[in-house]
């Protein structure tokens, strides 16, 4: 009884076979079929290699949501300005909440040499080339996101030469923590003096002819400091052509959460619009000489996640390549063989031309083929 049930089960399974086996004696091979098979296998191999390279690659996924974080924001600063004496320059932040953040809360003033060493100049040229490429090809930002990791650094390298040149500039660097509202970070002449209506800078004792707001921004970022990330103002250098000159940077900051296979960080991206002009009250150009960075924060937060193709999707795409090429080449080979047979048969039929009819004397024609007579000797 068990054997009978087993035979019935096997017969049922055989009937469900979707891949019937054809005896080798019924299979006819041809040179054209072999050529098409070689082309098909070569195409499958190339597409499989390309698909595997796509499987190994990753891409960045961008998601947007409302920013609900109201904590303070860190401003990371690395400046050099040609105003030398530390008492002559003041840097602070004044936001829309009328909160003043003094430079003494996190910034350091140091004498420095404005000119770069040969190694530092090479670093700056490379950084400026990257910045120009980023403005033309925005997809390079994804490459920077994926390559960012904690051991990398885009900071200005230290001077390798022991120059005897005296310091001619003031280096301002450090971190400031500000409210997450629009504000104005500025560097101008004189230390800031707070008062009930805002604040002012004590610049009466500084000669106007000594003003020089030529500056270099080695680094400026918002939020968590992520080495390896290149920000829009990194490597920017401005040379003042006049003593009373104002440099303005209008910055729009976008909170960004970065999640890659190498790093996870809460940073901020930003875009910049630059403007500079000479202060001349007689000509109607009013204002204060200095460097002004007016920043505003976006209400949207961007989550950037590095994603990878899952293995099941790679396997499905691979099966589609193999099956699709087999089916397509089989159909193309069948159609081509059919067309060739039609053309070949037409030429064969064209070789048999009808024999000319022989007219009789009464006007009728004989359409029959003449019989061959045997000659007897």
Automatic annotation (TrEMBL):
User: What Pfam families does UniProt report for this protein, alphabetically?
Assistant: COPIIcoated_ERV (PF07970), ERGIC_N (PF13850)
Q: Which domain of life is it from?
A: Eukaryota
Q: Which gene encodes it?
A: ERGIC2
* Family, similarity comment: Belongs to the ERGIC family.
Domain Endoplasmic reticulum vesicle transporter N-terminal span(s) in chain numbering: 13-77
Look up and give the organism this protein is from.
Sus scrofa
The protein's name: Endoplasmic reticulum-Golgi intermediate compartment protein
Name a single GO biological process: endoplasmic reticulum to Golgi vesicle-mediated transport
Domain Endoplasmic reticulum vesicle transporter C-terminal per the UniProt entry, residue ranges? 164-331
């Amino acid at each position: 009884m068990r054997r009978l049930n087993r035979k019935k089960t096997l017969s049922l399974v055989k009937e469900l076979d979707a891949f019937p086996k054809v005896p080798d004696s019924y299979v006819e091979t041809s040179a054209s079929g072999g050529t098409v098979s070689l082309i098909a296998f070569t195409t499958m191999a190339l597409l499989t290699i390309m698909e595997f390279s796509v499987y190994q690659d990753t891409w960045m996924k961008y998601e947007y949501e409302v920013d609900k974080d109201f904590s303070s924001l860190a401003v990371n600063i690395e400046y050099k300005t040609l105003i030398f004496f530390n008492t002559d320059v003041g840097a602070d932040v004044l936001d829309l909440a009328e909160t003043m953040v003094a430079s003494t809360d996190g910034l350091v003033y140091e004498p420095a040499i404005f000119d770069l060493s040969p190694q530092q100049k090479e670093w700056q040229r490379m950084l400026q080339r990257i910045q120009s490429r980023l403005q033309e090809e925005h997809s390079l930002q994804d490459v920077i996101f994926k390559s960012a990791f904690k051991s990398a650094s885009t900071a200005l390298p230290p001077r390798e030469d022991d120059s005897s040149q005296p310091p001619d500039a003031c280096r301002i660097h450090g971190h400031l923590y500000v409210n997450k509202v629009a504000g104005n970070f500025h560097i101008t002449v004189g230390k800031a003096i707070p008062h009930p209506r805002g604040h002012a800078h004590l610049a009466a004792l500084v000669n106007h002819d000594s003003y020089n707001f030529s500056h270099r921004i080695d680094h400026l970022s918002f939020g968590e400091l992520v080495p390896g990330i290149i920000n829009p103002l990194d490597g920017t250098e401005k040379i003042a052509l006049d003593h009373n000159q104002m440099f303005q940077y209008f910055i729009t900051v976008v909170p960004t959460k970065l999640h890659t296979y190498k790093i996870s960080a809460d940073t901020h991206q930003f875009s910049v619009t630059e403007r500079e002009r000479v202060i001349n009250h007689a000509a109607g150009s009013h204002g204060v000489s200095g460097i002004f960075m007016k920043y505003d924060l976006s209400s949207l937060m961007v989550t950037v996640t590095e994603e990878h193709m899952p293995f099941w999707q790679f396997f499905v795409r691979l099966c589609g390549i193999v099956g699709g090429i087999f089916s397509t080449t089989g159909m193309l080979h069948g159609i081509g063989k059919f067309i060739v047979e039609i053309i070949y048969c037409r030429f064969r039929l064209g070789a048999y031309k009808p024999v000319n009819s022989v007219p009789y004397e009464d006007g009728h024609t004989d359409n029959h083929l003449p019989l061959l007579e045997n000659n007897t000797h």
